[in-house]
């Protein structure tokens, strides 16, 4: 069982590393969305897809490694760790499990923030296009004789720079 526990721990370490890479990419994504750098955002999205594919494979591998442990009925993973690993390895396992959980939560929070940024950007673009559309269908700002006329569409939108 010790070899199977080591394999399981190794897969969890790889998953934690992948989540850390995804978190770094999500943080970069925040900056790219704010700066509206679409080419860089496209490239970053491709890298995120690669990491997500890697994570899917690791998830499958972790499930297989867990099943290979073949824990007896009623035995928990913690009990198996207690019996099958020395104290330093148990401590490492606890650390990896906690790190994995914390990083996954931070990634979830960052992804929610990024989604909100994108939603806000799309709402702004929709609002801007609506204003442009209204301007295009309103009467011209100048009369045919060249004199200024009153502009019927809103010119400035408060809160938007």
- What is the general shape? rod-shaped
SSE arrangement, N to C: HHHH
Identify the quaternary structure here. single chain
Q: What is the rounded distance between the termini? A: 63 Å
What does this structure look like?
By secondary structure, the chain is mostly helical. The chain has 4 helices and no strands. The protein has helices spanning 2-35, 38-68, 77-84, 87-137. Helix 1 runs parallel beside helix 4 (87-137). The longest helix has 51 residues, at 87-137. The protein is rod-shaped, with a radius of gyration of 27 Å.
Write the layout of secondary structure elements.
Layout: H1 2-35, H2 38-68, H3 77-84, H4 87-137
Describe, in short, the structure shown:
With 161 residues, the protein is mainly α. The chain has four helices and no strands.
């Amino acid at each position: 069982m010790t070899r199977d526990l080591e394999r399981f721990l190794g897969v969890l370490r790889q998953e934690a590393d992948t989540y850390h890479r995804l978190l770094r990419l999500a943080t970069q994504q925040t900056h790219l969305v704010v700066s509206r750098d679409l080419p860089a955002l496209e490239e970053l999205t491709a890298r995120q897809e690669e990491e997500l594919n890697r994570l899917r494979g690791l998830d499958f591998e972790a499930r297989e490694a867990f099943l290979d442990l073949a824990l007896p009925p009623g035995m928990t993973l913690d009990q198996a760790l207690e019996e099958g690993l020395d104290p330093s390895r148990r401590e490492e396992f606890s650390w990896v499990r906690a790190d994995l959980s914390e990083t996954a939560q931070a990634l979830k929070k960052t992804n929610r923030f990024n989604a909100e940024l994108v939603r806000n950007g799309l709402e702004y673009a929709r609002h801007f296009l609506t204003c442009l559309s209204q301007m295009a269908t309103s009467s011209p700002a100048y009369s045919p004789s060249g004199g200024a006329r009153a502009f019927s569409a809103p010119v400035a939108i408060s809160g938007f720079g």
